[in-house]
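In the previous lecture we treated proteins in isolation. Real proteins rarely work alone, and many bind small molecules. This record shows how such a complex is specified: first the sequence, then the SMILES for zinc ion.
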Amino acid sequence: MTGSAVRVGLGFDVHPTEVGRVLYLGGVRIDDAPGLAGHSDGDVVCHALADAILGGAGLGDLGAHFPDTDARWRGASSLSILEAIREMIRGRGARLVNVDATLIAEAPPVGPHVAAMKENLGRALGVEPGRISVKATTNERLGAIGREEGIAAMAVALMEVSDP
Ligand SMILES: [Zn+2]
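The predicted 3D structure, ligand included, written as tokens:
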């Protein structure tokens, strides 16, 4: 045991919109908007957070641990991916200090759902919602995201890692 250190991780994710799919962001079902294509539920907030947390813990990337070819995650709630990651970082002796995510979406408005997202994410990750921040911005109508062809999210995670 040589003590502990803080580590930061960065995550990014984007999924194309797909009419007929249900939209989930931060584990919250948002009706009256097209969903996101993807192997799981396409929840970009969960995926960006997962990648940031794995990165901070030095555990590689999301695709390596939860590949598209794994039937276990087909149509799965991405909150269950975060639950699995919670156990992985515990096994690594890492602790989540805080996470901050930014959603980049032209539509729908996500502000009204942020509190519920923080609660879902905190429950999945085993931390109080005060350690979770979710923000949202638009892409100012520029590019594919500006044309509502997809939704993206980026995230950072600060971790305390024992025996780095
Ligand atoms: Zn994803």
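Summary for your notes: The chain has a mean pLDDT of 93. The first strand starts at residue 4 and ends at 18.
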